[in-house]
Amino acid sequence: MFRKHWITICVVIICVLYGIQIVWDQTHHVSEIPILGYHHIVEDCDKELYYKHNMWVNSLSSFEEQMKLLHDKGYHSVSLDDVYEWRMGRKKLDDKSVVITFDDGFYSAIKYAQPVLEKYGFDGYSFVIGSLIAPHRKSYQPDIRQHATLADMKDVSHMEFYSHSYDLHHKKGGFKVNLLNEKQLQEDTKKAAACTSIEYYAYPYGKYNTTIQKVLKKEGTKLAFGFNENRKARITDDPYALPRFNVDAYTKLDVFYQMVSQ
Ligand SMILES: [Zn+2]
User: Fold this and answer.
1) What is the pLDDT of residues 188-208, one digit of tens each?
2) Which of 122, 160, 186, 192 falls between 20 and 30 A from 222, CA-CA?
3) pLDDT digits (tens, 9 = 90+) for 69-98
4) Threshold 0.70, pTM exceeds
5) Do 56 and 249 form a contact (C-beta atoms < 8 A)?
6) Dihedral pair phi/psi, residue 166, rounded to 5°
7) 232 CA distance to ligand 1 centroid (A)?
8) Could you report how far apart the first and last alpha carbons of the chain are, in Å?
């Protein structure tokens, strides 16, 4: 009799724990995550002097303010490997997950963004244009948007480097990705792979078509990112067309918080 009671109690406890697990899963494991996209970052005085009306150049103080907000609200950055595992249904991500990316391979991502990421314990992902990797490091000139060298990209903590094409970052006469045939896109992708990993790839201007998607799949890219769709990436999205938020110089802090929280 006494033993029977114990068995009933154990069964009830197991059922309650199972129920808690289900509720936890439903409330904390998400089916969409925010992927943030930045470009160039400069010190506030240089923003004022050289890039006052350039929306693609963010001030360091606004970047720091955004990262502090994420930190204070309990967010943590997730890696692109985590995003891939999540998209494949092999990993769960919680509602405080955020992905932080930088396009075009500017040296400023290393010089200015990386220390802020490190301060808050976040990781960033920089998408580099292969043909624009600087051959030699020149002294820092704030009025020029300098690209990083391969040496700059070595052993940078809290930041990894992937591809933004080798030389598709042109839009004169139409987005270059739409002007090339499959063979030419494959050549570009192979050249990109010789510079940085193409495991993850951000399309220049966020523009893509079925040919580049086919090429990337063939060359082993696991995820490819658009830009400026201004919505979260969903677990049901095409892995070769994951959307990102554009965080530019005009993104106010309340709008920024809406991006990650809603
Ligand atoms: Zn770009």
Assistant:
1) 999 999 999 999 999 999 999
2) 122
3) 999 999 999 999 999 999 999 999 999 999
4) yes
5) yes
6) -85, -50
7) 19
8) 53
